[in-house]
Amino acid sequence: MPTQRAVMITGSSTGIGEACALHLDRLGLQVFAGVRKNADGEALRRKASAALQPVRIDITSSEGIRAAAEMVRSAVGESGLAGLVNLGPYCASKFALEALTDSLILQHLRLPGR
Fold this sequence. Notes:
By secondary structure, this protein is an alpha/beta fold. 39% of the residues lie in helices and 17% in strands. The protein is built from four helices and four strands, in the order E-H-E-H-E-H-E-H. The protein has helices at 15-26, 38-47, 62-76, 102-109; strands spanning 6-10, 30-35, 53-56, 83-86. Strands 3-2-1-4 form a four-stranded parallel sheet, with helices on both faces. The radius of gyration is 13 Å and the shape is globular. The two termini are 20 Å apart.
């Protein structure tokens, strides 16, 4: 069972997503950094603490989103995520995270406090 607060950030390979992931990692949060390529995850890991965990995710695929959500869910357990930051560079409209209902997000990610 994790003792630190956890966040998931999509689009962590470069730019604002990378900066957010590294900043929150430095603040001591458990960061799950969504990346499209394994090489991007390894590059990010070299800049971060051992607590940052790259997560390979294809945000254009419902199966990719589901697999990443399951991996994060199993890592954080009942404590859930403290936050979800969607900075992925593109997203097919039928998979847009903004279109998900609160109850669906809670069901899949088990966010506490709702």
